[in-house]
Amino acid sequence: MLVKIPDMDDDVIAELKRTTGTRTGSRAVYLASLGYLEYHKICAEQDKEIADLRQKLAAAAQVIEGARSAAALLLEKTGQTELL
User: Fold this and answer.
1) What is the extent of the structural domain holding 32?
2) What is the pTM assigned to this prediction?
3) Pseudo-torsion of CA 5, 42, 60, 58, nearest 10°?
4) 73 lies in a domain?
5) Alpha-carbon distance 72 to 70, whole Å?
6) Which residues contact 24 (CB under 8 A, 6 or more apart)?
7) What is the tens place of the pLDDT at every residue in 23-60?
8) In a domain, 2, yes or no
9) How many angstroms separate the CA atoms of 64 and 66, rounded?
10) Radius of gyration in angstroms for the set of CA atoms belonging to the chain, rounded to a whole number
């Protein structure tokens, strides 16, 4: 299949050729597009992992706050409020 990109800047093509280590613009664009697909997949996986980690962090923060409140209540009940 022939794909023409008539408005592609020569500087962009030169940079793609340098980055991909190829001699032709078409090969450089092809390899760059493959790289994009791989990085897009990696980014989606990382976005999911970040969301999961944020959820775990929020849960851990709630546990810590609950423990802090329980400790303060215990100190209050035992008359050791100076430790607060």
Assistant:
1) 10-83
2) 0.67
3) 20
4) yes
5) 5
6) 17
7) 999 999 999 999 999 999 999 999 999 999 999 999 99
8) no
9) 5
10) 28
3-state secondary structure the chain: CCCCCCCCCHHHHHHHHHHHCCCCHHHHHHHHHHHHHHHHHHHHHHHHHHHHHHHHHHHHHHHHHHHHHHHHHHHHHCCCHHHC
**Contacting residues for 32 by C-beta, under 8 A, at least 6 apart:** 16, 19, 20
Q: Which amino acid is at 6?
A: P
In a domain, 4, yes or no: no
pLDDT tens per residue across span 62-78: 999 999 999 989 988 88
Domain count, the chain: 1
